[in-house]
Design goal:
globular, 150 residues, binds adenosine monophosphate, 22% strand, alpha/beta
Amino acid sequence: MKSFDKILTAIDFSENSDYAFEYALMLAQECNAELTILHVINEPVDLRGFYVPHISFEQLEKEIEEGANKMMEKFCSTKLGNFTNFKTAIVSGIPYEEIIREAKDSGASLIVLGTHGRTGLDHLIFGSTAERVVRSATCPVLTIRLPAEQ
Ligand code: AMP
């Protein structure tokens, strides 16, 4: 029988993903699952050799990585309570691609994401990470909207 033994949740430190995370944690506890918490650093436009000196670009990347690590540490220390069956991952790239990659690599049986549920022009301009993941994932995906947005 299938079970949710490995749950992947992707967080961007927004109110939406905080809210979805509560469901991911509850499900991990209920299903006795391992929880992977992924954050993707949106790849900055590669300006190397253009008008940003090489050294400052490297420095910028390092600072962004350090900032992401600190945010993840703070997130885990405030949100996980006494839940210990988790691991974290921070990678750079395009969020939906990295979420799919991590789901495959970790053998996730469920992906939990927040979503803004954008429609119309907003959807056209900003797109939807959650929608792209739903389209490409090979395992079930749970998307959760903030109640105020419904
Ligand atoms: P949407 O509002 O449909 O674009 O989906 C937003 C959701 O995608 C967030 O609540 C997160 O679960 C996930 N997400 C978006 N950006 C990132 C990111 N940079 N790192 C990890 N997860 C992300």
